[in-house]
Every structure is written in C-alpha cells, then in structure tokens.
Amino acid sequence: MTRRLRTAALVAAVAAASLAAALVAAPPAFAHSVLVDSTPADGETLAELPAEFSVTMNEPLLAGAGDAAFALRIRGTDGRYYGDGCVTIVDATMSTPAAIGAAGDYVLEWQVVSEDGHPVGGEVPFRWTGAATGTGTSTPPGCGAPPAEAESPTEPEFAFPLTDILWLVGALALAAVSVGIAVLATRRRPRA
C-alpha cells in the first residue's frame, strides 16, 4: 500500500469514527415525544368520569413553548367539543379538567411540544356510557376565551432548537479535529 493510499485510508477511518461517535453520543432530544399513557386509555369504555383527562409522554414536555402550542380536547362524533381548553403541564404529563356530553363515542385530541421543540399530536378514541356533564361547543375551546366561530387553525412556529445546532456544530468540530490529527500524523517527518 502506498503512503498516499495509507494516508487517505487513515483520514477516512478517523472521519468515519468521529461521525459514528457523534451520532452515538447524540442526545435523545433528536427524537420526538411518544405517548406512553392516557386517561382514558385507547379504546377504553368509561362509565364514571375521571377528575381529569390526561396524556403522558416518554419525556418531559417543553416548558415555555406557549399555551397555543399545547392542546387537550374532547370531541364527540357529533363534532362538538367539551371542556374549557385549559391544560396543566407537569413534567411529561398534560391534563385538563374532565367534561363530556351524552353517552357515545369520543376522541381525546392532543398536541404537545417535545423537548426538541417539535409539535407532536394524536388522538385517543374512547366510549362514554354515563350522563352528560356539559353541552359542548361547535368550535375547539381556548383557555379563558369564550367559544368563537371556527377560524382556520394555525400551526405554532418553532425555531430550530439551539440544542440541535450545538450538537451539529460539535460533531463537525470533532470531525475537523480528527481529520487534522490524521493528516498531521501521516506527514513525512524530516530525517535527521
């Protein structure tokens, strides 16, 4: 193997090892939150109303993302929404006081913001067999706001999370340093 080929192979190996180390050491913030529990559970039949409806994620939710970024709503098959739209967030759990209409099928709609700054949402279908506790509204509720006519919903705007940028810069710096060391290590040394 020629010296030039050895140098190229060493540089490629060091760069690949640096990239692999950066990817393995990447924080879990690169992954989005995942629903791990909810009240009610997916497909559950409720005869008694719980004190609150809730969703629990696999990681703490992003504090300070703004109230509009989080939602927990109960929607009936008739399209009506129940509850006041106010949510409480504690670590990885978001909850809202329970309210519901007449017996029937419902969906718990949720949206949260992961630690990495990305919105994640979903639905949990369930059945209610008890008495109505509210009349519901035709528009999704907003905490502290009276029901209004439906407007087209807007997605919250999120900046590229600073942690993602820092990890990327760190990985690139590590790769550059590794390549520099490999090049210096393979340079010809002057003979004495």
Automatic annotation (TrEMBL):
Q: Which Pfam family is one of those matched by this entry?
A: CopC
User: What's the protein name?
Assistant: Copper resistance protein CopC
Give the stretches traversing the membrane: 165-186
GO MF entry, a single one: copper ion binding
Entry's localization field: Cell envelope
Q: Which UniProt keywords apply?
A: Copper, Membrane, Metal-binding, Signal, Transmembrane, Transmembrane helix
Q: Which organism is it from?
A: Protaetiibacter larvae
- Cite the residue spans of the region called Disordered: 131-155
Q: Per the annotation, which location comes first and is thus the protein's main one?
A: other
According to the record, the signal peptide region is 1-31
All residue ranges annotated as the CopC domain in the record: 32-127
Q: Which Gene3D superfamilies match?
A: 2.60.40.1220
Q: Which GO terms describe its cellular component?
A: cell envelope; periplasmic space; plasma membrane
Q: Give me any GO biological process, just one.
A: response to copper ion
